[in-house]
Write a structure and sequence with these properties.
53% of the residues lie in helices and 10% in strands. It has 413 residues and is α+β, with helices and mostly antiparallel strands. The protein folds into two domains: 4-218, GAF domain (Beta-Lactamase); 242-410, Hypothetical protein af1432 (Orthogonal Bundle). Strand 1 and strand 2 form a beta hairpin.
């Protein structure tokens, strides 16, 4: 977990560009433009209007800076970058590409087009190929006034495509962090345009913000995974402590994800479901051995102690910002569709969808595994019959139906 996620600033390294320095630089540009604006308004109203518009653009970058730097690299963040880039340059198209250092290829992750999304799923560009590939490889800005007269265009399929849509001029700027190319941001214009040094500077500053955001997000992910792997080790240690649950987490995760994929969950929902499945029993670390490992039937008091584990699990995860979407799934994976579950007695669609999926997967594995207090386990067929029987009461009926269908197709167990 980064300090930033806890409400404090953090840095990737001692030589990382300081956000305050970027803000100071932007403020300086704004002040310069304001001074030029006052002079221009005295002599030429048209130039004054242009400078006034550019001043507003810089202020816009300044105002969204904290949002961009604090964002994680998702489709929404990439779309924000493309939208702002197009607006800043008054262009018709803005494309954001990120570099895959293993394949040495640039992939389009977002674009903003004035009419339609023609750039979706477009082929990648190899490092060094075309305009963007050259920008990424040489870490330099390339400005093209007329694409019809530029030799690099013949190696850039994307430019050829958007040329058919009337694009004439291009400005491509590398996204670089500490000498390492992360990607390229490109703006395309239908109107022939000599991009001024001021415009190049504005887009270059914006590219610096993008680089900082991407690098901080990568650092955040690394710490995120360190914490997650530590907790996962704790869960696995818990299973070692209780031999009857060995492999439980792995199986529940598989079952839950199978349902999630079938239901067409979005990628971020799949990730949340995976984390929740792997963490759903972490609260059992607070359960005493004499209860957790009791070989006999539990008393009502002991059962109440066991039923605290979803709450305890949620309490363990709650301080971790990157587990924000996971926490309620862990808390509610023992709720029942009829409202008779625990800890909060939620019913129906009050229970988060992912928790309903997890409840079905968790119950199936519990029924088909040996438990000391039960002395026997159900066959997969018997367990599926129980799920069918309790669809609409214990389980979400649609999820129960999908789970039974998937379990039979994949021949669980």
């Amino acid at each position: 977990m980064t300090q930033r996620a806890l409400g404090q600033r953090t840095s990737v390294g001692n030589d990382q560009p300081d956000l305050l320095a970027y803000n100071k630089f932007l403020n300086g540009l704004i002040v310069q433009l304001e001074n030029k604006l006052q002079e221009a308004l005295k002599t030429n109203s048209r130039i004054g209007e242009e400078l006034f518009a550019k001043n507003k653009e810089l202020q816009h970058i300044f105002s969204i800076n904290s949002k961009l730097v604090s964002a994680t690299p998702t489709g929404d963040m990439y779309a924000l970058v493309a939208r702002i880039g197009r607006s800043l340059m008054d262009g018709d198209v803005c494309v954001l590409r990120l570099l895959d250092h293993e394949t040495r290829a640039l992939h389009i992750v977002a674009n903003r087009y004035s009419k339609d999304n023609v750039l979706k799923d477009f082929p990648t560009i190899k490092l060094g190929d075309g305009i963007s590939g050259k920008v990424a490889q040489e870490k330099r800005v390339i400005s093209v006034y007329d694409v019809d007269k530029n030799g690099l265009v013949k190696h850039d399929a994307l430019v050829r495509l958007i040329r058919k849509r009337g694009v004439r001029s291009i400005l491509a700027v590398p996204i670089v962090f500490r000498g390492k190319t992360l990607g390229v941001i490109s703006v395309y214009s239908r109107t022939p345009c000599h991009f001024s040094p001021d415009k190049v500077k504005v887009l270059s500053v914006f590219a610096s913000h993008i680089a900082l955001s991407l690098q901080e997000a990568a650092h955040y992910r690394e710490i995120h995974m360190t914490y997650f792997n530590t907790m996962r080790t704790l869960v696995l240690a818990l299973e070692t402590r209780d031999p009857y649950t060995h492999g439980h987490t792995e199986r529940v995760t598989k079952y839950a994800l199978d349902v999630g994929y079938t239901l067409g969950l979005e990628p971020d929902e799949v990730d949340t479901l995976r984390y929740a499945a792997e963490m759903h029993d972490i609260g059992k670390v607070s359960i005493p051995d004499f209860v957790l490992l009791k070989p006999d039937k539990l008393t009502s008091v002991e059962r109440s102690i066991i039923q605290l584990h979803p709450v305890k699990g949620a309490q363990i995860l709650a301080p971790l910002e990157f587990m924000r979407t996971v926490t309620p799934i862990v808390r509610h994976h023992h709720e029942r569709f009829d409202g008779k579950g625990y800890p909060d007695g939620l019913e129906g669609e009050q229970i988060p969808l992912l928790a309903r999926i997890l409840a079905c997967a968790d119950s199936f594995d519990a029924m088909t595994s040996e438990r000391p207090y039960r002395g026997y386990k159900l066959t997969p067929e018997q367990a599926l019959a129980e799920i069918k029987k309790h669809a609409g009461t214990q389980f979400d009926p649609e999820i129960a139906r999908q789970f039974i269908k998937i379990a039979k197709a994949y021949r669980y167990r």
